Amino acid sequence: MKILIIEDEPQLAQSISEYLSVENYLCELAATFAEATEKITLYDYDCILLDLMLPGGDGMKILEEIRRQQKQDGVIIISARDSYNDKIKGLQTGADDYLAKPFHLPELAARVYSVIRRRNFNNTNIIQQHELQIDLLARTVNINNKPVILTRKEFNLLLYFMGNANRVISKNALAEHLSGDLADMMNSYDFVYAHIKNLKKKLNEAGCDNYLKTVYGTGYKWEV
Question: Which residues carry this modification: 4-aspartylphosphate (predicted)?
Fold first, then answer.
């Protein structure tokens, strides 16, 4: 799952990034209003952590822009502005949650997980599609009640497909999901093809039906 941390305090931003990376999230950083605005326009994220007081502008305007673009990114406001009015305005504008500073990183991680689970997986910890079962908390995959060992990227790729079931996902979107904004510097999608090939091979060899379809010239689609 891909997270954007919009926070101008370098030490806090780095602490959040390091903690969430251990929790198997791919984290990107934005420290200014302009940088954050550019990233939300160019890329999609599973969850955005949004500070309201940023160099160059008010974070609430970024939230308004996210919703104006009708993006589906989850948003958690993280702010020292802990007034009742700020919380109400943020939630009414479209934030999924509001966490006042200072906060404990485990609580932040729990809220990130909750937002992603609610938005992508109907608020459940267990995803079941016929013979395929995924436990989001344990990060395990079972096919016909037998475990399948996936790498971290393969597991995240599987979740990404299942969270976007029946939608065609472009090769560019997959590259961004796997590598973040580093995707812009890559000359080919070979690494995307390699991860998808390995994922499909492991699922098929374990007895999983072929839910992951290639849409030629466009990308891939997970069918349910």
Answer: 51
For the cut 90, the answer to whether the pLDDT of residue 17 exceeds it is: yes
d(CA 57, CA 32): 8
DSSP reduced 3-state for 182: helix
Say which CATH number the domain at 156 has.
Answer: 1.10.10.10
Give per-residue pLDDT as tens, 55-114: 999 999 999 999 899 888 999 999 887 777 888 888 888 899 999 998 999 999 999 988
Mean per-residue pLDDT of the chain: 89
Contacts of residue 173, Cβ cutoff 8 Å, sequence gap at least 6? 44, 219
Residues 108 and 132 in one domain: no
Judgement on whether residues 87 and 131 belong to the same structural domain of the protein: no
For residue 35, which amino acid is it?
E
* Strand order across the beta sheet in which 140-143 lies: 126-129, 132-135, 140-143, 146-148
State the pLDDT at residue 208: 96
- Region of 202 please: left (phi>0), alpha (psi -120 to 50) or beta: alpha
